[in-house]
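Protein details
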Amino acid sequence: MSRRLTLADLARFPRPGTQVPQRLRFSPDGCWLFFLWSERGDLVLSLWALDLETGERRVIAGPEPEQADETRLSLEEQLRRERARLRAVGVTTFDVATKARTVTLLWPTPSGLAVSRDFGAPRLLPGTEGALDARLSPDGSRVAFHRNGGLWVMGLDADAPVPVALPEEEGISYGAAEFIAQEELDRSEGFWWSPDGRRLAFQRTDERHIPPYPIVHLGRPQPAVEYHRYPFAGGANAKIELFVRDLEAGTTAKVELPALAAGDEYLARVWWRDEERLVVYLLSRDQQRADALQFEFPAGSPPAAAVTEGFSPFPRAPLGLWHDEQQPWINLDHHTRFLASGEFVRASESRGYKHLYLHAPDGRLVRQLTDGPWMVTDVLGVDEGARAVYFAATKETPLERHLYRVSLEGGEPERVTAEPGWHAGVLSPEGRWLVDLWSSLQRPWSAWLLDLRTGERRALVPSEDVSPDRLGVRPPTLFQVTAADGQTPLDAALYLPDGDQPAAGWPLIVSVYGGPHAQRVANDWSLTVDLRAQYLAQRGFAVLKVDNRGSAGRGLAFEAAIARRLGTVELDDQVAAVRALIDRGLVDPARVGVYGWSYGGYMACLAATKAGDLFRCAVAGAPVTDWDGYDTAYTERYMGTPTSNPEGYREASVLTHARNLKAALLLVHGGVDENVHFRHTARLIVALTEAQKPYELLLFPEERHMPRDAAGLEYQERRVMEFLGRHLGGSLVDEPGAED
């Protein structure tokens, strides 16, 4: 490796070769593709348009200075960025009207919402300063947005927005997804336009009964306190109600969902099937049962009991479209597609792997479209003219993702992508164009446009001119080890240093996450540009990643191994993988360490307290230390409630095992982390102090769950490397001038 990475490299984002177009959207006529992208390869995004016939690419909107500075964003916007794990700045979101006769685009600016019709000069919509989650009606005549707890609507030619619903008091909001929906259910929206733009479905969230949790800013010149109504495991959830506003009639109807309103169900998904039918997907609190209910709104008139002031009950009983029931939990997805024919495509994991099914208009199953010991991981779109659905799947191997199409009439799926690696994509509405985003261990991310009529394939934007050799790094080796059960194969990645192996074996660092809904081992460029792992390899340390049982991408049974017993099989499998490398003579058993963040921080704490005979040191970033202090939906999905599974919670808690700490432990946490509260680390510190166990603490008073400050990130990397080097032997921090 000729180029030597520096600590500053580790703190710099985006990683080399990772910048590709984001939030891809086609125009209704399929002639244009819109996306967010940085031509300079940095985090500052602009809105671009591509003429699909000519290949001409143009900038629609560039960032204003205020949009490039996160500190100038409102608290609500900062928190939404945390839920989305968003580092990019500039123009980070936009919308396109899906059924407008002319191309209608909308994007936020510091001064309010900007709109452009038919590529004309942008126009600011008055009175829209501070608008969040702004979305156009499908016909492009109106925009709806959330602001200060209320839901607002504005005609694009109007002088000012008008409120649809305003909060009665603190703790109530309209039109915004609650914390649990954003963080754990992968639902960021709190209102939904009907296809004709006449009606607006929206949620009312009542969190007044959830005690405020204080988060104190101690690193500012003047102290400040944020209050979050955080639903702790076993505690109360937000109470959600669903309403439908008829904007033409000026009436609002309440959709009667009593269990949801009581906080005993989750509003998982909402779809408008057509102009008259709204489908609501409700998930039970234990996440083992779900129902899709269809509510009808007859054309030409509002519901019979509707009123112009206040809310009225929805008078008609819903139709049950489908019911899901599954142990130990239901994994939500975004695979459902309602077709113009009245049919719909949806996914189910009832047979152990996520697969696609075609249903008749009344909900009856017509046929299963995909089958086998592999998973559909995304639906790219449906070509209704050709009656084919395009999707991404693990059909060849869970280490890769390829794009496929399958006929709605049945038959074998046809693979569309040829290049080995990881593919993602988007299909144009009329089924002609397919965007293919692709990378592999050897190839940085690139974006390709495939004309499905002619087979022509061309680059969407120029790819970054990077390669492993130019970066001075070497991709990890992918291999398999056997799980602690002695039979389950686990995917793993190993970064090895250059040069001759020491007689005792390489010192080893385990880079761990270990939790569900994540896959870290793949034929994907992100592994090659894991710069912390590469930095360690350049300095003589091997680095290991293992997808233990409980990880994503291998089917429900593989993931369900952790059900009601977090922190057990995951750690056992990580230990088994390390011991396998020791048995092969690759690793020095006296020089093994581990680091991880979030769930990985939790795993690092368990490694230090439950497997201290193997791990000499551990770096735990933002760890959950007791699951009674994490949120309802995530924790209860995997563990049940504290009262239904007390022994599982006790064994899963790091606090239970703190007295057994043997490894050196460095705790890293942000002081204003509103996801995994600093309280987790504080509680562990108390337990370690009571047990007279040593620890080190690296606290960033003004950071949240995802550290963002470049100087702070570089300082963190320096402290981590110094800690690992001190306890495992080896120089991991270069002397001044040596990094240049």
Notes: The domain at 167-332 is CATH 2.140.10.30 (Methanol Dehydrogenase; Chain A). The chain is about 15% helix and 35% strand.
